[in-house]
Structures are given as structure tokens and as C-alpha cells.
Amino acid sequence: METDDRTRRQMKIDGVSYGAPAPGGSPPGGEPRFSRIGILITTMWSLRIPGGVPSHITDLAKALANAGHQWSFVNPSERFHSPLWKAVALAVGRGVDGGRVTLTKMRLADLSRKIRRAVERGRFSLIHAHDAFAARVARSAELPVVLTVHGPLSREIRMLMGERSPRYLDYALDSEWEAYTSVQRIIAVDSGQRDIMVCEHGVDSRKVCVIPNAVDTELFAPSSTIFPDRTTLLVPRRLVRKNGVDIAIRAMALVTDPKLELVIAGDGPEESHLRRLARELKLSDRIRFLGAVRQRSEMAKLVSQARAVIIPSVPAEGVVEATSIAALEGMSCGVPVFASRLGGLAEIIKDRETGFLFRSGNWEELGNLLDEVLCRLPSETSLAVGHAARSYVQAHHSLSVWVAKVTSVYQEAIVG
């Protein structure tokens, strides 16, 4: 756990942060040298906000270092999240929609400066961007760029903002197009993300490699607590529509063991609606809202001591769950995961062997499944599924397995 938090502190969030001095990628006049690769990792997003992308980047940095590669990290300054800068953007953009575009351009200008400064000071083989906005500005550094697509940017903006921000949506679409056409290689975290890029954006499928997410199996490891004594059904989800937390709340009405408690670890715009729903269903005494869990070591403890992890994702504005890191974390801890049968979740979970699947959006099916497995079947059933899940994750989604695939894509991008 200490290693993970130390990696996160190394990535100082604001400014240029270094895991170690970046080495050169090629000896003078020679072939590319891949024993050690210097990678500049970048994203438009803040790592202060808990979620899949910050976890992914933190794990990537640790995995690269463990494999002998060296990384540096840049993202825009946190000052742009202050009310002052938001007010400036609102005035310059002449409204909320224009303000979002203006603020994004301000943050990207700052990121572009930091990328150029990092490239001047370090010796990098390539840049690894983790969103289309960052990839759009990374191309100016004249290094090969690899882009990981964690989700469809424009669809996610439409999901969160509806039709309220047409200019911002257009800017996101333009950024996606520029990123997809300019980068050397693209990593999609599941086949659904690849299909969106190929079918909707016309990306050459040969440019895209599907590499599912990974998990730190040392940090997310089984707990020694006695399994039948556990009472927490954990929903480690940001409170947005696509994460379907309302499905888990409704399902609790069918879970007959009164000792079992639904614990929701996350925050977001749906929180007030979800609290109201719990009150309306008279389930408030069985549902606890923890808010955002900002330390991964704390989240690892919560997950490992849970009786079950629930990932009740639903489609929203064309956004479908990819290979959920939260699901992989539960599986890595040997905790039975109950997940919607859709997207990347169905690609990583084999029903009743490495987890339990239910029809997306069907709270009655989830409730009956939870009651059957946790309240009526012997605990050995859940334990066996949990053990199988951890074995699967160690074999297919550990950091060492994952980073070998990622660095193979790096090599392709460098060679060209």
C-alpha cells in the first residue's frame, strides 16, 4: 500500500513531475533501444479527483518503473479549477458553453507549455496521452504519441451535459478527430471503445490495439477478515448516470439479511437524487454514503473487507462501461463481484465462475441474485468464485502482464 501512495505523491499533480530521469530511446546512429524507454505521461484531467483514469495512470507509472522503464508526468495546473479562473473563462467565453471551451483552451495551453518544457529537459522516446485533448496538443512536441482511450469523450460530455453545451461538444469532437488522426498508436481499454473509433470516427483498425485495464494485485489483495462475518456490500462508483447506483439501491429491498448494508463509496452530481431515492424506498437505515475515497490504500481496505462488490452500470447516451478498474479491484481482492452484463464487464467476468452477472438496469434480478448468493447459498460458493476471480486477474490483468502489452505498443509507435 505504501508503494502505491508513494507513486501517487511522486506524480505531484501540478507541474512537471518525475519518476526518474528519462533516458534516450536510441543510441546515435543505431537502432531503437527498447531495454529502457523514456515515457512522458500526460492527461488533461486532474489526478486529485478519484476515478478510473487517475488509478490507471498511477498503476501505469508503477508498472513502468517495475519493468525498468522511466517516466515523467505532466498535466495542467490545478489553479484552473479555482473560481477565479472559471469566472475569467465565463467572461471571455460570453456564457457557460463558451466558458467551458475557453477554460479548456487555457488548460491545454498550459499543458502544451509543460510538455514542451519537459521534452526540452528530458530525453523521451514517446508521449503517452490519456485523453483526446492531451493528445491534440502532444503532437506539437514532435515525438511519437500513443493515446489510451478510456471512454468516448464526446459521448461522455453529451451524457453529463445533454444539449446544453453544443460549442464544447463540437470542440471535443474536433479534438477526438485530430487526436485519432495524428497519433501513432491507440490503445482501447475494451473492444467497445475500439469499435466506436473504427465505426464512428473512421479510425483504421490496424492503428488500434485492445488492452484491457489492469490492477495492482499487491495493493488489492485478499483480507484476513472472516468472510461470513462481513456485512458490507460495496458500490465503489462515482455518482453519475452510467454507473447505475440507483439499481443497487433498489435491489437492497430484496436482500433479506438485515445485517447486510449497502455502502456507496463515491460522489457526483446524482448524490442528492440517490439519497432521496433511499429515503423514498425506506432503505436509509441500510444504505451509507461515504463520499469520495481519495486514498487508494483506503479504497483497497474497503474492497478487501467487503462481502461483495457491486458494479451496476447502465448505458447512458451511448456511454457503456469498459473494463471497469473497480470490478478488477474487487476480483483481485477475492471478493465476489456482481456486475451488469454489458461492455467490458462481460469481457472480464465469467458468470458464476469469476463473478456474477445480471441484466443491465434490472434491479429485481440483481436483488434476487444478491439474496440467493449471499443469504441462501453457503458462503463457500462466494469464496470459491472470489478465489477463481483473483487467480484470473493475476494471470490476465496484473501490472506485469499489462505493462508488457503496453510497451509492445510503445515499440510499434517508435519504429513507426
In short:
This protein is α/β, with parallel strands linked by helices. The protein has helices spanning 2-10, 52-66, 83-93, 96-121, 132-138, 153-161, 166-182, 191-201, 245-251, 271-280, 296-304, 325-332, 345-348, 363-376, 379-396, 399-415; strands at 15-18, 38-42, 70-75, 126-129, 145-149, 185-188, 208-210, 232-235, 261-264, 287-289, 308-311, 337-340, 356-358.
Biggest sheet: strand arrangement:
1-3-2-4-5-6-7
Q: Beta-strand percentage? A: 5-15%
Q: Write the H/E string, N to C.
A: HEEHEHHEHEHHEHEEHEHEHEHEHEHHH
Low-confidence stretches: 12-16, 20-33
Number of helices: 16
What's the end-to-end separation, in Å?
38 Å
Backbone shape = globular
Instruction: Compute the number of strand runs.
Output: 13
Content-based structural category: alpha/beta
Q: Main beta sheet, described?
A: 7 strands, mixed
What radius of gyration results from the CA coordinates? 22 Å
Percent of residues in helical segments? 40-55%
Mean pLDDT: 90
